[in-house]
Amino acid sequence: MRIVIDISKEQKSIIIGTLLGDGYIYKDRFGFHYLEVKHSDAQKDYVFWMHKKLKPFSSGLEPKQRRDNYQWRFTTKSNNDLVELRNLFYPEGIKIVPKNIPKLLIDPLSLAVWYMDDGSLDFRPKSHFAFSLKTNAFKLKECRLLSKVLKENFGLETSVQYPICRGKRYPQIYIGKQGRDKFIKLIDQYIIPCFQYKLPQYRTLQRLNLLKVG
Prior knowledge:
A hairpin with a 3-residue loop joins strand 5 (119-124) and strand 6. Helices cover 39% and strands 19% of the residues. By secondary structure, it is α+β, with helices and mostly antiparallel strands. Helix 1 packs parallel to helix 5 (108-118). The protein contains eight helices and ten strands.
């Protein structure tokens, strides 16, 4: 029997964000659906933050570290909402960007979780900074759809770039000069301490502190 636990609005926003990033919903042989969250040892605090935010939907057991790769991991309980999301994001077993993503990606919290999961900051003191969302797993047309949604739902100016990675081109969403300040305003309040290095204001502050010490 599937456990029925209502998911809050905040929890659904978090799940949408991580599904665009590193999160995964898997289905076992009995038809139960679980969200899996796993990250490196450097991101341990993030895994525990996710576990706390998803309670009581997350399992009662604390996240555990794997012995083979040292990743921290937990899974949630099965839930009817996960069945729906699995069908949307994995219609044929491979993650896609669902066509109804404009109705799903509506909360800045989702955007922040997505960035913490799979985003990066290109930071050059005194000269430049920009953001990117590593959408390598998605097709070019899906990334263009995401870029369109970011503009329509958040007023965020982005572009889709196609850089080479390990000899192959992968699409990624780029947030440059036209959108970076708004992006910071949208996500800053949600970024937890272990990911503050992904925001330029904290990198600048850190640099200033180092200069004072020096």
